[in-house]
Amino acid sequence: MYGGDEVSAIVIDLGSHTCKAGYAGEDAPKAVFPTVVGSIDQMDVDDMTSNEKNIAVDSKNNVKDSEKGKGKRKLFVGSQALGFRRDHMEVLSPFKDGIVADWDIVDSIWDHAFRECLLIDPKEHPMLLAEPSSNSQQQRERTAELMFEKYTAPALFLAKNAVLTSFASGRATSLVVDSGGGSTTITPVHDGYVIQKAVAFSPIGGELLTDCLMKSLESKGVMIKPRYSFKRKEIQPGVFQTVDIDIPNTTDSYKLYSQRVIASDIKECVCRAPDTPYDEGSYSNIPMTPYELPDGQTIEIGADRFKIPDILFNPSLVQTIPGMDNFVEIAPSVRGLPQMVIESINKCDVDIRRELFSSILLAGGTASMQQLKERLEKDLLEESPQAARVKVLASGNATERRFSVWIGGSILASLGSFQQMWLSKSEYEEHGASYVQRKCP
Amino acid sequence: MANAASGMAVDDECKIKFLELKAKRNYRFIIFKIESQQVVIEKLGSPEETYEEFAASLPADECRYAVFDYDFTTNENCQKSKIFFIAWSPDTSRVRSKMVYASSKDRFKRELDGIQVELQATDPSEMSFDIIKSRAL
């Protein structure tokens, strides 16, 4: 049992899009940064010609703190390090299909969170990590190994995302609809237990919507210029001149990353879920909304404002967007949000269905989309059984909605009574990594 | 054990009074709260008190647990009673208190042996007398 009297736990929620890290007991995470990292193969660096050395030296001064030698490649973590363009830097994500595939990257992200963002020594702080409900036993043991062996953390706890969200809303039983960056997961929680067989998963998340918006704009002739690709200066008061810069060694993945940053801002500014299913005809005449791109050009967005969010409800819309071909293969198997909710509830025991229908919780970044809650409630009312009392809930507070998982973990880890629940380092040493299954079921 | 349980202790008095409610029937309801890291009794209701008086005893913006002993007559004119467990977690309460009560509920409920119906309520409409009546059947 971990017996420290000072509760100074660290809470980390590593999402598919952003990593949230901070001190337990606080209202919001201290550090929020992208889950993707920049990576440069060291081979390439050695081959660099002398005129590129300047840039290399320059970049070292800028981001010395956040870079990390990793054998053959160098990883750059954090929005600042990623904001700086480097030759041959690829942007990589540790996740593949919602599961951690590259532990080196996870390691570098944790390290960045501890040493650069929170400025703590992981040896001195218990760690509460939020994990997806679908995490396998192997993944959990790997997490425990890394935390205890490499960071020598004094104690660890793995809490399930959906359970934390549910508890933070005051419910031990609920249906958690977590629409994040990389995916949407629907998880029924009953008395604090995840009903695994009824968990529903779809690859449609904020990032896919961002990509759709970008492709749709491209098909209309709007090219989003990444910030590094131009210089903009004021030649006379009020008059700006934009000069394109040609940078040949930029990787495609970095270009995409930079464009996504802009496109996701457009999405957050103008998009809202339509009240009824989207159809081309009735939305063709709606007023355009202007948006000014970083390079100064102003674009007008019309029907896409409603069409893009409607993909959550009707995934087949993706096929109508030019350039989204790679998605078409999986599209037929993906269902819309209301269907997923109903399917998931129907997989649960009859006795708890009523309760699940009346406490559907919206969480995650994409759930902050305007009108999403109202639309989901409306669609569910139409499709659910008569007797069901449908209620979709989302915290009115945007921070709480976006960070519900982290906030739940923060409160839990700071409770005096919780201190007996940790998996301590000595327990780990005595029983091995598989003990994590016992302590954090 | 549920995932992410808080590990909150339960005062023995809670179990004793609950047994009295169940066996001796000398209370109509009991309201529990969490204080200094354990679940303790906040209020005991005498058998004469009504459901309205019980509902009025729950604070409007703080979480509580409660048990209510509901007497009713079935369609076959048969006298029956059922013990309700209510997790009261109003939307207006603080996140911290919602989290504490929700993560301690599973453990606490296990200590009270003999609960027949369970409700979670976040506003008064979710624990109206009509709902109690319909769930008792």
Automatic annotation (TrEMBL), chain A:
GO biological process: chromatin organization
SUPFAM superfamilies found in the cross-reference section: Actin-like ATPase domain
Coiled coil: none
A GO CC annotation given for this chain: nucleus
Protein location: Cytoplasm; Nucleus
Superkingdom classification of source: Eukaryota
Keyword Nucleus attached: yes
UniProt keyword annotations, A-Z: Chromatin regulator, Cytoplasm, Developmental protein, Nucleus
Keyword Cytoplasm among UniProt keywords: yes
Described function: Involved in several developmental processes including organization of plant organs, flowering time, anther development, flower senescence and fertility, probably by regulating the chromatin structure.
Cross-referenced PANTHER family: ACTIN
Family assignment from sequence similarity: Belongs to the actin family. ARP4 subfamily.
The protein's name in its UniProt record: Actin-related protein 4
TrEMBL record, chain B:
All copies of domain ADF-H, residue ranges: 7-137
Highest taxon above the source species: Eukaryota
Keyword Cytoplasm assigned: no
Alphabetical GO biological process terms: actin filament depolymerization
Keywords associated with the record: Actin-binding
Gene3D superfamilies on file: Severin
A family per Pfam: Cofilin_ADF
PANTHER family: COFILIN-RELATED
Protein name as it appears in the record: ADF-H domain-containing protein
Organism of provenance: Salix dunnii
